[in-house]
Design goal:
The protein is of the alpha+beta class and 64 residues long. The protein has a domain at 10-49. It is 12% helix and 25% strand. The protein has a three-stranded antiparallel sheet. Strand 2 (26-32) and strand 3 form a beta hairpin. It is flat. The structure holds zinc ion. Residues 3, 5-6, 8, 32, 34-35, 37 line the site of zinc ion (ZN).
Length: 64
C-alpha cells in the first residue's frame, strides 16, 4: 500500500486501542515507514464518504 500523505511504502501493523462498543481492543492498520501516517479501514471509509458541510451552519466570512 502507498501512503496517501507522502506516497512511500506502508506496512500492516497492530495497534492497541481503548475497548470500543463492539468489544474490540486491538486493530490492524497500515503505517507509513517514512512519515508515520496511520490508516485503517474506518479512516479510509470516513475520508471517502465524508458528508458535505452544512453551508447554513458554516462560519461566515465577515471580511476581516
Ligand atoms: Zn507517509
Amino acid at each position: 500500500m502507498q501512503c496517501p500523505r507522502c506516497t512511500h511504502a506502508m506496512i500492516s501493523d497492530s495497534f492497541t486501542d481503548l475497548l470500543d462498543d463492539s468489544g474490540v481492543l486491538g486493530i490492524t492498520a497500515w503505517r507509513c515507514l517514512t512519515c508515520g501516517e496511520v490508516v485503517d479501514p474506518v479512516i479510509l471509509a470516513n475520508r471517502t464518504n465524508r458528508p458535505e458541510p452544512f453551508v447554513s451552519k458554516s462560519r461566515k466570512n465577515w471580511g476581516a
